[in-house]
Amino acid sequence: MSAGHLDAQRLEHLRWAIADDLERERYYGAVIAVARGGRIGLHAAVGFADAAARQPLAPDSVFSIFSVTKAITNVLVLRAIELGHFALTTRISDLIPEFSGGLRNQIEVQHLLTHTSGLPIIFALEPKLPIDRLDVMVEAVCTKVEPAEPAGEHVAYSPLVNHVLLGEALRRTDPARRAYRTIVQEDLFTPLRMHDSAVGLRRDLRARHVVPDLRGNFPITHPAHDASLGPNGAFLEERAEMPWLGVVSTVPDMLRFAEMLRRGGELDGARILSPATLELATRNHTGDKPNELYKMRFQKRNWTVAPAYQGLGFALRGTAFCHHLFGNLTSERTFGNHGAGSTLYWVDPEREVSFVCLTAGVMDSLENIERFQRLSDIAISAAL
Predict the structure, then answer these.
(1) Angle at which helices 69-82 and 251-262 cross, to 10°
(2) Bridge partners of residue 33, in order along the sequence
(3) Is the overall model pTM greater than 0.90, yes or no?
(4) Of 107, 216, 229, 373, which has the fewest Cβ atoms less than 10 A away?
């Protein structure tokens, strides 16, 4: 393994491929980084933050990372398990008694991490419900959401409910009874020196923030309690606590997060997870079962429906030749997470490559898969 070697011409082709996408007006811009063995081969900002091309992107532009937030929550859940606060087999009803009764009592932490909880695929709990306060969302989930089937039967990606529950589990089992946002800051962002990352849009990050433009490609709005912030104001609220989509970050910070994972849970002396936990978390725990959400979407395009390849909180590349965000050329243990047609990171542990790409202008979910499959294949081809 020639750690750190990335072919400059292939990386320049990767930058060109993004620029070509922008020329075709597929999205507004992107910030991307590719590293091998901890050495950065490419860190580039291409294009703009907005449709009017008024705000050029910069290498340290701040993005709402959407469901990549789930990766932040998942890592802290795995850390809490290592610390003995609860276990993979702990029933969520034991941690949140209001969420109990019937099929709810079957759901364990492991089911939430693998999206096999039996809970329905829900993007919003009710129209116009402000989503920026975790306590409000926990109450709404406990009041309104029942499993659609027993836990463990299917893989059904949970856009919201699973991580409302996991974020609340972190808060309730924390020995110091800290808020979710404080746990994230003190146990992850501060030790990893992710200085430009926050739960909610921290005031000092606003000037660099890429305001999300959903472009009609997301099925719901995201209101905050402050209605003056607009229909998607939850992404602009400083005190928002949304463990499923509420983190803001930069490519350099997310590369530090990815590098911590690539190195077995440690970076620059900060130990977040153990290698044993990551080895377990990056195995396929859902067998050949498909992801029911993507099964429905893929069938509309007559695409091959592949296994979900779900680890404990991480999506995996797997072995099937299929439409995949991580490409088809990465190794089968490649793992990572993505968010709403715009954000992606992955780690290929075999080739020691870390990839982060945060983009402006949310794409249709299937077009986004095609986009990132192509960019991921180009990126891994640079690892010679």
Answers:
(1) 40
(2) 43, 356
(3) yes
(4) 216
